[in-house]
Amino acid sequence: TSTSTGSAIASRRLAQLSRTLASSAKMLTTPTQKHRVTVVGSGNWGSAIAKIVAENTKANPELFHPEVKMWVYEEKYQLPSTHPAYDPAKHAEPEKLTALINSLHENVKYLPSIPLPDNIIATPDICDAASDATLLVFNVPHQFVSSICNQLNGTCLQYARAISCIKGVDVSPEGISLFSDTIGRRLGIYCGALSGANIANEVAAEKFSETTIAYNPPTGPTKDYPNGLEEVPGELPAVDHTLFKTLFHRPYFHVRVVSDVAGVSLGGALKNIVAIAAGFVDGLGWGDNAKAAVMRVGLLEMRKFGKMFFSESCKSATFTEESCGVADLITSCNGGRNHKCAKLSIQKNKPIEEIEAEELNGQKLQGTSTASEVNEYLKRRGLEAEFPLFTAVHQILKGEKKVEHLPELIERV
Ligand SMILES: NC(=O)C1=CN([C@@H]2O[C@H](COP(=O)(O)OP(=O)(O)OC[C@H]3O[C@@H](n4cnc5c(N)ncnc54)[C@H](O)[C@@H]3O)[C@@H](O)[C@H]2O)C=CC1
Ligand SMILES: O=C(CO)COP(=O)(O)O
Asked: Which ligand lies nearest the alpha carbon of 197?
């Protein structure tokens, strides 16, 4: 009847009006709460990033709780008697690293001699560190991501957002995944990426550098988030490019925020393979021209890898125009740990794993395992010949080829 049609229309209009009002109210809500930030990881880069984030949470109290929890993989550490704070009455025995960080405000093992802000709280319990965080920063060597996600399963706030500073790719028999995607999928939250020409010791000493952050959360349901992402509550400051710039940008650490998560993540992962090749060449004393040749081929393979396997999302320009691409390649092929250890392994004629253990005091190379993981992925698809430099580095690390043959191995035919 006309009366019932009229009332149906009226009730539809009412529902529409109330939806509009609700969404306008949300837009008008002034945030009444602040973000809580946790850094998962406390190695060389993990500690340097925690320092940056803690400086910025302190400087922006309207957006963030000042305290930054930093999850530490607990271990005992003997404070050297040469350390300025060494007191034989207190430090005669090895102590928990978390206790040393919290009392000395310094990560004496992984980032020595750098004062950390006192609003960083080191904690050994990963679930305690992450459970109330609305912003999570993942910064661990890539080989530990899987076990960390297992431990965090079900712990994180589902509306939390994350940034991965990890340089590596997640290869499994099912395929290849960016670590930002792996973390997002495993924890049910969205995760972007941060990567750049950022040797941690230089950044921690506040020497100028640039970095790239990529953040591009989906707006509806996707394969990884079939029910869509849980919305960040309106009481919290909006999580967007501006917020991440505020959290990471410092006068000595300049941030550009983009949307190409694949390009940002792949640059940081793949340049580690090229840095090993550069170290090999330097180990032989072949000079700068040889290293430039290796870097040229490496950059082309990085870009080709992105185009071939992440075509929908990865932009070629990210490799050439952003810090996370060519700039990271250049710095890593000169001052990085992968370069250093590869060079020493040639000079001392020792396996690179032995050099890593002797030289890095617990820090981890990412290029050796990335070379093997990328090779596994390419080999399964019969594509090793398409990436001659990546393939040669893997074969040299395995002892199947000699560094001296690198020029023929990467020659264009
Ligand atoms: N160090 C640097 O200059 C830079 C590193 N990166 C990237 O940042 C990521 C993290 O690197 P770093 O902080 O330098 O780490 P790191 O190389 O200093 O690694 C040591 C860290 O691993 C932890 N660890 C050891 N065993 C563990 C386990 N079983 N489970 C969990 N954690 C364990 C240690 O406690 C320590 O915190 C890597 O992907 C790296 O490529 C990115 C930019 C610069
Ligand atoms: O990623 C880095 C600099 O941007 C550091 O590289 P290494 O892990 O080789 O030291």
From this structure: 2
Report which bound ligand comes closest to the CA of 43. 1
Task: Among 280, 295, 329, 338, name the best residue to mutate to test ligand 2's pocket (greatest count of ligand atoms within 8 A of Cβ).
Answer: 338
CA of 337 to the centre of ligand 2 (A): 6
Tokens of 170: 């997640």
* Mean pLDDT calculated for residue range 37-49: 98
133 and 68 Cβ atoms separated by less than 8 Å: no
Residue with CA at minimum distance from ligand 2 atom 2: 199
Name every residue whose Cβ is closer than 8 Å to that of residue 82 and which is 6 or more positions away in sequence.
none
Ligand nearest to the CA of 364: 1
Tens digit of each residue's pLDDT (9 = 90 or more) over 287-342: 999 999 999 999 999 999 999 999 888 999 999 999 999 999 999 999 999 999 99
Which bin fits 112, alpha (ψ -120 to 50), beta or left (φ > 0)? beta
Residue 22 corresponds to which tokens in the numbers above? 């609700």
* pLDDT above 80 for 29: no
Active-site annotation holds for 271: yes
State whether the beta carbon of 362 lies less than 6 angstroms from ligand 1: yes
Regarding the beta carbon of 331 and ligand 2, being less than 6 Å apart is answered: yes
pTM greater than 0.80? yes
> Over 80: is that where the pLDDT of 20 sits?
no
Q: What are phi and psi of 369, to 5 degrees?
A: -70, -35
45 CA from centroid of ligand 1 (Å)? 7
Closest alpha carbon to 96 in 110, 112, 118, 78: 78
Catalytic residue among 109, 167, 271, 340: 271
Q: Domains in the chain, start-ordered, CATH in brackets?
A: 35-259 (3.40.50.720), 270-409 (1.10.1040.10)
